[in-house]
């Protein structure tokens, strides 16, 4: 009986320790993609309140928010593709921009001011007419990069991040939404690490059963 009780206590202690280990690993390994958003977007040439609209440069502010409290993020070069959306044709590519690779500390925010001149495929006259008629004028911003997470002194493998959002323009040539526009569409990474932890827990459990039984 004493041997049986000792075995039960040993088994309970092992399971309890295994649970704490799994919890620690899950908290340590889980990661969240950075939040990418367009904070401002302005096309002076579409501002109907201006008499002279000869400035064809488009300006926008991209915000990258690392919400991980204890994990830094290494960004590869960030590729930004800007397109113009209409109701009658597929989105028209108008420019491509690159933000060079950089490191972002845990729980940090980064703001990247960008500007470009649309190529010849963008019809300023048609866009101005649409704005004047209060019709939808929408630009599409797509972001593609790869990120690695820094966990203490260890770096994860690269994870592809592809997100995008529509930006609707108002009468003054700026985005209609006052708040930032979140770029979405990227996969969540939490499930990937949860599966890894689950596999590790199952492996330890099997080793325990083989050892004691």
From TrEMBL:
Predominant localisation class: membrane
UniProt GO BP: defense response to other organism
Keyword set, alphabetical order: Membrane, Transmembrane, Transmembrane helix
Annotated localization: Membrane
Origin superkingdom: Eukaryota
Gene Ontology CC annotation, any one: plasmodesma
Position of the signal peptide: none
TM segment ranges: 12-29, 189-212
Stored InterPro entries: NDR1-like
PANTHER family from the UniProt entry: LATE EMBRYOGENESIS ABUNDANT (LEA) HYDROXYPROLINE-RICH GLYCOPROTEIN FAMILY-RELATED, OS05G0367900 PROTEIN
Protein name as catalogued: Protein NDR1
Native source organism of the sequence: Ziziphus jujuba (Chinese jujube)
